[in-house]
Amino acid sequence: xxxxxxDNTDEGKKGPSLIIQLAVFAVLTxxxxxxxxxxxxxLKSGTTAQPETAKVIVESGTPEAPAETDSHEGxxxxxxxxxxxxxxxxxxxVTTNLSAPADIWVRMELSMVFAAPPDAGLVRQxxxxxxxxxxxxxxxxxxxxxxxxxxxTDLEERAHIRSNGLARELVIRTLLFE
Length: 178
Known about the structure:
It is a single chain. By secondary structure, this protein is α+β, with helices and mostly antiparallel strands. It has a domain at about 85-175: Band 7 domain (Tetrahydropterin Synthase, Chain A), CATH 3.30.479. About 45% of the residues lie in helices and about 20% in strands. It contains six helices and five strands. The chain has helices spanning about 1-10, 20-45, 65-70, 75, 120-135, 145-160; strands at about 55-60, 85-90, 95, 105-115, 165-175. Strands 1, 2, 3, 4 and 5 form a five-stranded mixed sheet that branches. It starts with a helix and ends with a strand. Residues about 65-80 have low confidence and may be disordered.
């Protein structure tokens, strides 16, 4: 008897009416549309600003004489700024074998960003320093993304120290192991 009464009470309770369900669905839909519009407007407002680009002078090869680097100063428009534009100098390729395993060879093509026109002797010293450093590196040290980042950081620090802060950034254009 009591089970029959319990079944009758469950059948009588059907839940909210169809109109209330449609109203809740409409409210949730408008909230989702409003949230999407707000998020889109927020994200779009952040992309309008363009990053400021720095003017870099690109020099190919090792500068041979200071007179050659002086000829590029007229092109920079140095009247705009008092400080000289950074210079991108392509270093000669570095080819050497690694410390371990010794039968693995590495070839690197590098460029260096200098704060001011570098001396040719300084560029050669940095090249020789990088060559000497690469002979002490093992293959395990440069494996993976973190190994590559550590190698780049080490080479940048050595160039920065060697140039007394004139070298700003190292660009690894090619890194090949054989």
